[in-house]
Design brief:
Distance between the termini: 10 Å
Largest sheet: none
CATH architecture of the largest domain: Up-down Bundle
Strand content: under 5%
Helix content: over 70%
CATH class of the largest domain: Mainly Alpha
CATH topology of the largest domain: Growth Hormone, Chain: A
Shape: globular
Radius of gyration: 20 Å
Length: 388
């Protein structure tokens, strides 16, 4: 599976840590913009519509670019790809920090979308080729936890940085983290210098398999991200205090991190069918959505923690499945899978919002439950398809 000889492998722990830091920096602006939007409004008009456009533009570009980026890395090399992604993260963050109009925020969120589209498959490919197979479960568990760490960090940025300084200071953080991490990776020689070129005309084998995995990722991410986008509003409407609703959202993120790390460690200690484990977690998310439809404070808490927390651990085993099934074209395969995730992130909140506005949250949660169940069924179906 790994293209780097064991004797030449860099430190797996350092590689995973610095690469996770890069992905965290790439995800931070996506959470900082909504978290700091109120502060932006003190400097210029920044409406809810502007926020929605900025997020959709970013996710849309990521979904479009990631499949292409996955194939491009094989041609330009991991060092160049990582450096470009880190530079774009810094540019997008500093650009938002200097923004004086909504158009500038939207434009630089687009740059961030390009950074994520290039970075997500590149960072995952770096872990896949640089970490021994018997430690990849934990490595991918940590890497896929980066977005949740970013969400948690964005929440802390508001009281610790933005409040005493300004909202602009908050966007200096992802720029600094990205430059620090890429410098460490390059200075310590953790990124292979050689360009692993594939013969001209060679394509991913088992291409149907990876596209079906991307479909599972799209369905599952649409369900979970759609729910999490409206969890606070829903909980308040059901009688929760605003602070308690926010705490519930933060707790789902911590549960998601624990689930990804836990199932990653399980994958290392007890190697098995990664797709089966992903399907199990998607089934747990389905149960969580069912609890949300029933309602009541206790069941809402339990449902949110299952659907948006433990059940969201599916990203770790799904990434492991992609790597194990496509060892000769890991970057390209991960790029396709990541594209599916971004497509779900783009359309999930839109679908939940429309159903909640014109129907009810119960209808929205039923839809999310059906999406999660379908994702699990698709993941199980992929096990029958050919691969590398």
């Amino acid at each position: 599976m790994n293209s780097i000889p064991v004797a030449a492998r860099p430190s797996a722990g350092a590689l995973t840590g610095w690469t996770t830091g890069l992905l965290l920096a790439a995800c931070l602006p996506q959470y900082l913009v909504p978290a700091l939007a109120v502060g932006m409004r003190d400097d210029f008009t920044f409406t809810a519509a502007d926020l929605g456009i900025a997020a959709s533009f970013s996710f849309g570009l990521s979904a479009t670019i990631s499949p292409v980026a996955g194939r491009l890395v094989a041609r330009i090399g991991q060092r160049v790809a990582v450096s470009v992604a880190a530079a774009l993260i810094a540019v997008s963050s500093l650009g938002i920090a200097a923004a004086a109009a909504p158009a500038a925020v939207i434009a630089f969120m687009g740059v961030n979308g390009v950074a994520n589209g290039i970075g997500s498959p590149t960072f995952a490919g770096l872990v896949a080729t640089g970490v021994p197979a018997e430690r990849q479960g934990m490595a991918f568990g940590l890497l896929t936890s980066a977005p949740q760490m970013a969400a948690f960090g964005a929440g802390l940025t508001l009281p610790l940085v933005a409040a005493p300084l300004s909202w602009r200071a908050g966007f200096l953080l992802p720029a600094a983290v990205s430059l620090l991490c890429v410098t460490a990776l390059l200075a310590r020689g953790l990124i292979p210098a050689a360009v692993a070129r594939r013969p001209r005309g060679r394509r991913i084998r088992g291409v149907r398999s990876i596209h079906v995995i991307a479909l599972a990722a799209a369905l599952a991410s649409a369900a979970v991200i759609g729910m999490r986008s409206f969890l606070v509003v829903f909980a308040v409407a059901e009688g929760f205090q605003q602070g308690a609703a926010g705490l519930l959202l933060a707790t789902t993120g911590l549960f998601a991190i624990a689930s990804r790390l836990g199932f990653g460690l399980l994958g290392d200690s007890r190697p098995g069918d990664a797709l089966q484990r992903a399907a199990l977690l998607m089934a747990l998310a389905t149960i969580g959505f069912a609890l949300l439809t029933i309602g009541g404070h206790a069941l809402i808490v339990a449902g949110a923690l299952l659907a948006g927390g433990i059940g969201w651990g599916w990203q770790s085993p799904l990434s492991m499945a992609v790597v194990s099934r496509h060892p000769t074209a890991t970057g390209a395969a991960i790029g396709i899978q990541v594209s599916g995730f971004f497509v779900g992130a783009l359309f999930g909140p839109l679908a939940v919002g429309l159903l909640a506005e014109h129907g009810s949250y119960t209808t929205a949660w039923i839809m999310c439950g059906c999406l999660a169940a379908a994702a699990g069924a698709v993941a199980l179906f992929v096990r029958r398809l050919p691969h590398d």
